[in-house]
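Its record is quoted verbatim for completeness.
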Amino acid sequence: MAEFAIEFNPEQMIGKLNDLQKLVIPKAAEMALNETAFAIREHMKKTTMEVFDRPVPLTVNSTLYKKASGDQQQLQATIFIRDDVPKGNAPSRYLNSQINGGLAYRTRFAKKLGNMADPDESGGNAPILAPNRVMVPAIGSKNVRLNQYGNMSPGQFTQIIAALENSSSAGGGSWQGKGGVNYVYFNQTMVDEKRLRNTKPGIFRLKGRELSRVMTEIPTPTNTGKFKFFDIGRQIAETEFPKRFFQRIIL
């Protein structure tokens, strides 16, 4: 889990304390820690807007903080990436490789495809999606429905899963959605046999005789860690906390 703490040790910061300072300083430190944590959270919101292309609100608001706690000699506030969501993918998981680098997060959609057997005999009963592969929307296709953030709509993801779960074969099945639309998976053998322009496996929208690609299978991307969560947070803490703390004490 991506998190770090801002800590305050009064004697390390200003030396030995007299009786009056022992009363005033802990409250001042607590207020300064909480204000600093809030400032970090607000800055992270702006950073996500700069680093990512049209991030969803869950990503923009993914940085949270726990208010200062602990004894008076070692107060700390904690800044972290949200890990609990009622449904969908938790930001702490899908942002991990954007923070630390590494393979992109395997989404719930990818996991479901990884648990489905290829319905065509040529697939040899292998899963539709191998552990080191992902499906990405065919952006630009007229049949990919995009939301305001430039992503495939959740509704279309749901329709694809329903179709693949209910189809008896990759070439079609008993399931049909609204308007007679079906979604099918073509593995490498099927793509080669059909001599498609895009030679990669993928998911296709089928309506009557019209076949159009909506997703393409690719190797799992490796992210570089472009979201500098720890560096940005600690830099803000180092500048903001002392300033806010000394504004609140009278020595």
Remarks:
- Residues 78 and 89 are 22 Å apart (CA to CA).
